[in-house]
Amino acid sequence: MKQILILGFFIGFSLCGYSQTTISGILKTEHAKPVSSASVTITDLNTDDILNYAISDGDGRFSISIKSSSKELQLNIRSMGYKTIVKSFDNKTQTLDFVLQEEATELKEVVIKSSPISRKGDTINYSVNAFSKQEDRTIADVLKNMPGIEVLSDGKILYQGKPINKYYIEGLDLLEGKYNLANSNLPYKEVTKVQILENHQPIKILDSLVYSDQAAINIKLKNSYTFTGQAKIGSGLSPLLWDVNLTPMLFSKKQQMLSSYQTNNTGNNVASQLKVLTLEDLLEQFERNDEKQDWLAIQQLKVPNFSEKRWLDNNIHLITTNYLYKLKNDYELRLNLSYLNDYQQQNGFTNTQFFTANDTINLFENKYNQLYTNILETNLTLQKNTNKNFLKNSLQFQGFWDSQQGAIQLNNDNVKQRLSNQYFKLSNNLKTLFPLGKQIITLNSYIGLNKTPQSLTVNPGQFNDLLNNGNAFDEVAQEIALNTFYTNNSLGFTKGWKQFSISPKFGIQFEKQNLDSKILTSTDATQTNIFENNLDWSRSKIYFNLQTQYKKDKWRMELTMPLNFHNYHLEDKPLQKEQNLNRFTFEPRLSLNYDLSNFWRVGSSASLSNQFGTINQVYYNYILQNYRNIQRIDAPLPEMQNISYSASINYRNPFNALFFSLVYSNTTTTNNLLYNTQILDNGATELQAIAQDNKRQSHNFSTRSSKYISSINTNLTLSANYSLQDFQQILNAVITDIANQNWRFNGKIDTDITDWLNMELESIFQLSNNKIQGQNNQNITQKFHKFNVNFYPKDNQYIGLKTEYIKNSLLSENKENVFADIVYRYTWKKKNIDFEWQWNNIFNTQNYRTVSIDNFSYLESNFNLRPTQVLFKVRFSL
After folding, report:
1. Is residue 205 domain-shared with residue 74, that is, in the same domain?
2. What is the pLDDT of residue 2?
3. What is the pLDDT of residue 682?
4. What confidence score (pLDDT) does residue 857 get?
């Protein structure tokens, strides 16, 4: 009952305070014929601001809802070939019919200035020319300038604070979730506009039945046949540097192709271009839980939280080819193939403070790490997506051959670590939808096999008391082998009835895993069962899900009611350990959205969900995760119940280029286990789980607004985020209350001072606080300021001065860093070739120190940065 009352509160919060006026009517000619496609706007009498608008339909009807405190407003009706009507009216709901008089319009000389942002239905169009700057080269550069759109540092695109669900080029999905590859290499001059497809349903046969509140992006090219891309070669000092990018692209109505070879040692992490970014693909990975897991690790440095190009010491090679061909009968065949090879080095030190209820433990470590990455991925997809049926089958292979080496200086001791971290997966995913009578049948089938062999060796041996009866020893090794089989199959249908769509689904999931692990020492003192795992794991779920959607006028409602039966069986025969768990769960979710007007939308949601542990959360014997962390979890299977609520307000006005979003969410998680962390005097930790109910409370608030002022070519962005987490943990046998708070404020302005001068200013302020047993620990603050000045002395020359100022509060002092770069670019316009000279890190800032907060520790990191470097590059479009 309490949850229902809280849900009612959030829905009420979303809808309260919005008293509306609705103006409707019919437009006719003097001969009583309807006038269609007429523009009807309502404006404020004092400011002339457009409050809302409508386009008359085929019967001449229009209807506009507005929210305004003004007593009197103005109605404007415009249509080519008719006299304009301007009428004041009282701000109350009423019907106003009009007769339009014909008027001949003589067009002499007309100068048209197109709007940078326009809207038609659920599609918002951004003009690329309006938002591009002289220094921009790719469509990713231009997207960062568009209000309402946010491009994160990893390439992920957000619209109104939410990740996009698809990235199309001319309506085709060449790269699935790895769209950063195109976004970072497609020359913006080949693009005429960027389209935001609001409420986008990717499966066409469901378009009129199942609505979506997510947005997609479609890139519209200037030509129907486009061969483009970029080629870049660069070299510099010091040490000897290189930067090469050869990325040809082909886009036509029949086929699309994007291939790329990229290599550099300048700190440009092109591996991010192969990262899956779309929300749908990420959710599927989470549900299957079959992505690569790192059971073992070397002790790494905390990487800095600013531009990778300043600190990433890399040597990377990326090769990829992506090809889509349209077959007969609307079928598409797509091949995505990529190989990544990277070698990275990390150098620095960490100072860690572990807080317990009664003590503080300090640990100082000098670290030097070498990271080797080798990844091969292939994906062959056959797809048909029409208004009559849908078919998609993807055959995928992933192979990881990763390894790492680490050297740590700890007091007077040297610790060496060697890690082999491999992973292999073969999977097939089939989804098809087809009509049967008045229903649409949906069939899903996923099957996957993966293997995870990993090993970690540490010299000298660690945890002497536990592993070698208190005596020192030379070496300890941890070996792990995990084999997994997973399948998920479901059958359902979708049926429309009036304003409802009903989608029942029945399915079965099954997972079978085997974990073999062993700790070996140079003295063979661990030849006992307490250091071996031979765990057989199986989980199955039989589920029935009824999804109901309601859509009428401005209302959107979705109710999902899954009923699940879970079965878990764990058995380690050598240890004679066994668990069985059977659970019925009911996990409803309700979401409501209401369009207050064409600009305003409010929404709320409430959900109840259950999660159960995975195999890496239950094993009965010790596993050495890294040189100072050993753990076993001889406890019941973790069970978590989440009760979540959220409320949101969104505003998007393409006419005024103003976008705003505000989101609040709250989650209460009930756990059946408490984790006991034993912190030893040398900073090593032992983790065990204890069966004891506890709760974790999370609050999150975020808001973002952006405004483009076309008259002065200025972009303004403001955002704020706040999060709070309250929970319990056992530290050195004491149940401890822990609270973590984080604040983040961000402001950005990008403005053209003159035709030859542009300035960018961005400021970020972050505050983190940790509280243990009601006692506040030291606040951690971070300030980031970026100031860029861009000069355009001629239309083919560009000079950029880029500066950064960063201030961090550390454990005992404040640390400041200043960075500066300069760029000069000359463009040979006749050949469309750029000659570019860069001087990065002019002040040769050599290290960066920062502090981060964990559940019960402060980590101060000192990371060695890239030295000052000079690069010369030649770039041209293909």
Report:
1. no
2. 45
3. 62
4. 75
Rg of the chain taking only CA atoms, in angstroms? 30
My answer on whether omega of the bond before 34 falls inside 30° of 0, hence cis, is no
Residue 229 main-chain phi, psi, to 5 deg? 125, -165
Query: How crowded is residue 848: how many other Cβ atoms within 10 Å of its Cβ?
Result: 22
Domain shared by 760 and 800, yes or no: yes
- 636: amino acid identity, one letter: P
Residue 212 belongs to domain with CATH number: 2.170.130.10
Number of structural domains found in the chain: 3
Q: Answer yes or no: are the C-beta atoms of 675 and 698 closer than 8 Å.
A: no
What is the spatial distance between Cα 22 and Cα 595, in angstroms, rounded to a whole number? 13
Whole-number pLDDT of residue 273: 96
Please state the three-class secondary structure of 243-285 as a single string.
EEEEEEEEECCCEEEEEEEEEECCCCCHHHHHCCCCHHHHHHH
Beta bridge partners of 596: none
Task: Give the rounded distance of the alpha carbon of 542 from its chain centre.
Answer: 30
Here the tokens at position 757 are 């001068």
Closest to 581 in 3D by CA, of 568, 572, 570: 568
Composition of the chain by helix, strand, coil, percent to 5? 10, 65, 30
Q: Is the peptide bond before 435 cis (omega within 30 degrees of 0)?
A: no
Question: DSSP characters for 553-592?
Answer: TTEEEEEEEEEEEEEEEEEETTTTEEEEEEEEEE--EEEE
How far apart are the C-alpha atoms of 361 and 346, rounded to whole Å? 25
The angle at the Cα of 254, spanning 253 to 255, to the nearest 5 degrees, equals 105
Burial of 391 from C-beta contacts in 10 A (0-12 / 13-18 / 19+) = middle
Give me the residues paired with residue 578 across strands: 571
Of the chain, the end-to-end C-alpha distance in Å amounts to 64
Q: Which residues of the chain have pLDDT under 70?
A: 1-19, 46-48, 104-114, 286, 356-358, 525-529, 680-686, 811-812, 855-856
Q: Are 209 and 494 in contact (CB under 8 A)?
A: yes
Q: Which helix (H) or strand (E) holds 73?
A: strand 72-78
| Residue 595 in tokens | 């369009």
Between CA 779 and CA 781 the distance in angstroms is: 6
| Of the candidates 533, 407, 403, the residue with the CA atom closest to the CA atom of residue 455 | 403
679 inside domain: yes
Residue 841 zone, left/alpha/beta (φ > 0; ψ -120 to 50; rest): left
What's the rounded Cα separation, in Å, for the pair 81 and 106? Answer: 10
Whose structure tokens read 């199959």? 489
Q: Which run of H or E residues covers position 437? A: none
Q: Name the amino acid, one letter, at 766.
A: Q
Provide the token pair at 31: 């001969």
The domain boundary, picked from 228, 259, 274, lies at: 228
45 conformational bin, left if phi > 0, alpha if psi -120 to 50, beta if neither: alpha
In DSSP notation, 227-239 reads: EEEEEEEEEEETT
CA distance 36 to 877: 45
**CATH assignment at residue 82:** 2.60.40.10
Say which residue the tokens 């005429």 belong to. 192
The CATH number covering residue 800 comes to 2.40.170
pLDDT in tens, 636-689: 999 999 999 999 999 999 888 999 999 999 999 999 988 877 776 666 666 777
Q: Over the stretch 348-382, which tens digit does the pLDDT of each residue have?
A: 999 888 776 667 778 889 999 999 999 999 999 99
Among the candidates 193, 228, 263, a domain finishes at 228
Q: Is 323 a member of any domain?
A: no
Q: What is the pLDDT of residue 400?
A: 97
Same domain, 67 and 146: no
CA 560-562-567 angle, to 5 degrees, is 160
Quote the pLDDT of residue 854. 72
| Residue whose tokens read 């292999």 | 424
Strands 21-29, 98-100: pairing kind: parallel
Domain containing 18 equals: 2-100
Q: Quick check: 419 and 405 in contact, CB under 8 A?
A: yes
Query: Nearest CA to 627 among 478, 481, 516?
Result: 478
Q: Is the peptide bond before 763 cis (omega within 30 degrees of 0)?
A: no
